[in-house]
Amino acid sequence: MLSVLAVACSQGDPIEKRIDDLLAQMTLEEKIGQLNQVTAYATEGMCNEAAAGTIGSILNLVDPVEINKIQRAAVEESRLGIPLVFARDVIHGFHTIFPIPLGQAASFDPALVEEGARFAANEAVASGVRWTFSPMVDISRDSRWGRIAESFGEDPYLTGELAVAMLRGYQENEKPLAACAKHFVGYGASEGGLDYAPIHITERELRNYYLPPFEALLKAGCMTLMPSFNDNDGIPNAGNKFLLGDVLRGEWGWDGCIVSDWGSVGGMIAHGFAADAKEASKRALTAGTDVDMMSYAYINNLKGLVESGELKESVIDESVRNILRLKFRLGLFENPYVEEENYQAAFYTPEALESARKAAVESAVLLKNDNKTLPLKAAKGERVLIAGPMADAPHDQMGTWVFDGQKEHTVTPLKAMKELYGDKVRFGYSDILTYSREECASLELAAFTAQAATYDAVVLFLGEEAILSGEAHTLVNLDLQGSQSALLKAARRSGTPVIAVVMAGRALSVGKDLENMDALIWSFHPGTMGGPALSQLIFGNEVPSGKLPITFPVAAGQEPIYYNAHFPERPASGSEVLLADIPLEAGQTSLGCTAYWLDAGFGPLYPFGYGLSYTTFEYSAPTTDKESYAKDDTIQVSFTLTNKGAVEATEVVQIYVRDVAGSTSRPQKELKAFERVTLKAGESRQVTISLPVERMAFWNLDMEKVVEPGEFYLWASGNSASGEKISFWVK
Ligand code: NOJ
Q: In a designed cystine with 598, which of 86, 217, 482, 579 is the match (CB 3.0 to 4.6 A)?
């Protein structure tokens, strides 16, 4: 096992000596070549470039034979024999596809996230890929933004914990897969949820909410980092000296490699931040962006900039050090090649498939279950009608960012239900909607109602096609697409119990659909093994335990909506008048002047952290071991958790804190700890959670990271909107 912790401190490291030796022998052209990253193209061309030393890394090549061929040109034919590193976006699995990161976040299970990343790394490394552009740790509060699918959601603490787990899975292996902390920083806050759009986030806001997961990742040894496409306060992130230099290299002392996002050195021209590629290259490199992914800006301009005296060669040297360090740390100088025989044996192993199934189980969130509709009984003669666009959508259930997972390996719910329960249950299937945007006629809906009336239950698999979320896929309307709401109504009219399972890359505004379903399971695109996982949840062989990693809005117009917001000056009481009840010609201030939505009410559809089970859990009021703490103390929070139902189940217990008054406004609540606790039916257990006081630190009025003395509220609860409040004090 490699210790990733060793990565952050390089002084006295023999690798540094080897970098110095190599650098002393390199020509300017060879140095610039190391900073040039290209996507795969014709093999012969890549071999020629590798031999000439004009490329340092290649992305999007996954065939070991090809990889070895080009690597041989680099190692055996180039003057200094510096190996290439091959990169790929391995985001939630390589061949075996795990739930999208937003789904993995719903598991609140770092160990499972780590395990999934390790399977992904095994499969990718077997193919010759040694660098992935993951984990993405953009704090994402807005479901209009399609890339929320790739995130761990809205909470900095949860994101940091899961990202570090994912990092371990990628990097802590015999042959590490280098991870990449992206997109640095604030990308998820793009205005209007529009991808690539500007952001305007203050330094304090960055430091309190957006930077912490990056800091956690880099301090845990993440080998690389990618600045985001967007600009913040007029500075594109790939050209932000303060963030890339002062914060990341200076304050955090990180010595990894910074790779631009695709074309984003050249993208500075689009931002109006550089007149041409030459100026863009200079601004990006001097800010700290080491490697130019797909702008060809460095390779075409850095030499001229050095020769004209506009750029010091020593600036280039620093960046070359960073990419060489990555190659040394990956062991590529000793071991540049990949096994060509039988590498596919690493794909879709039974262990990886089981891990993907488990991840899909844990990432499903039960949002509604009236009259204990779920689980269904797998009893002889039961008749269950399956329908909906995601019931048999092997491509779409894998979700966004899947380059290598093959749909032939996907097990859909339709297939799994029949395989697992077909010996008892009589399944029917309707293909009334075959993709999420499809519209159908009222005659077809009427026929569906008649068909559904002859069954004991209707299970509708709804949601979004994979292409509707992910990069560049912004929506302003978060309703179910096509005729899916109409299908729910048609099912409801049959009088048969209706179970909805939504597979999506984001939260959708399904509030108005709830009356047409008895039960609702949210499954953020669940990946290869989504079918068995969901079938087992529906029939009770598994018990839901997932919790929402994002706040669900009533309507898209509430976005961005998130639980850890600051208070508005005039919070609503919850009894204010809503749109339909406003008297005609009501006086301007007669409604009370508080913060609520006239047409959407007082809050979200479902709060952060929410999720039901097939049992109910009861929490006693929490206690702390003392009333008052010093800043370096650790608080012991205790409470009794009781499983009140008849099945063994797991509860994600969550500890929230509010700093009652600070030198700046403080969030309404912040998640400070969580733990998965499994209890047998009827079991009670005392749960004790350690909470270091330093977790209450924030960047205060003086821009210092401190725990400010005073009163804090604390809740131990199963979601962010409930629980009994207690107080503790920090001296
Ligand atoms: C663009 C995306 O923003 C980034 O996340 C990805 O890693 C690169 N393209 C490389 O494909």
A: 579
From the candidates 89, 138, 142, 261, give the one annotated as an active-site residue.
261
Residue 543: what residue type? Answer: V
CA dist 661 → 180, 665, 700 (Å): 37, 7, 11
For atom 11 of ligand 1, the residue with the nearest CA is 89
Nearest atom within ligand 1 for CA of residue 183: 5
Q: How far is the CA of 88 from the centre of ligand 1 (A)?
A: 9
261 tagged catalytic: yes
**Whether the CB of 147 sits within 6 Å of ligand 1:** no
In degrees and rounded to multiples of 5, residue 470 shows phi and psi of 90, -175
Q: Which distant-in-sequence residues (6+ apart) come within 8 Å of 555 by Cβ?
A: 478, 509, 511, 597, 599, 600
pLDDT digits (tens, 9 = 90+) for 110-152: 999 999 999 999 999 999 999 999 999 999 999 999 999 999 9
Q: Which of the listed residues 261, 293, 400 should we mutate to test ligand 1's pocket, taking the one with most ligand atoms within 8 A of CB? A: 261
Q: What is the pLDDT of residues 555-582, one digit of tens each?
A: 999 999 999 999 999 999 999 999 999 9
What's the pLDDT tens digit per position in 589-628? 999 999 999 999 999 999 999 999 999 999 999 999 999 9
- The pLDDT value recorded for residue 493 is 98
pLDDT at 4 over 90: no
**Cβ neighbours of residue 359 closer than 8 Å, sequence gap 6 or more:** 98, 99, 103, 104, 107, 112, 113, 116, 527, 529
Amino acid at 312: K
Asked if residue 19 has pLDDT above 70, the reply is: yes
Pocket test for ligand 1, best of 89, 177, 264, 400 (most atoms within 8 A of CB): 89
Q: What is the average pLDDT value for the chain, to the nearest integer?
A: 97
DSSP 231: E
The protein residue with its alpha carbon nearest to ligand 1, atom 1, reads: 262
In the block, which residue shows the tokens 């990069």? 471
**Position in ligand 1 atom list of the atom nearest CA 182:** 5
Closest CA to 58 of 123, 121, 124, 128: 128
133 lines ligand 1 (CB under 6 A): yes
pLDDT band at 5 (very low <50, low <70, confident <90, very high): very low
Q: Which of 19, 23, 67, 26 is nearest to 47 (CA)?
A: 67
182 lines ligand 1 (CB under 6 A): yes
Q: What angle do CA 139, 605, 504 make, to 5 degrees?
A: 60
* pLDDT (average), residues 701-708: 98
Question: Cα(459) to centroid of ligand 1, in Å?
Answer: 36
| Nearby residues of 592 by Cβ (< 8 Å), 6 or more positions away | 573, 576, 577
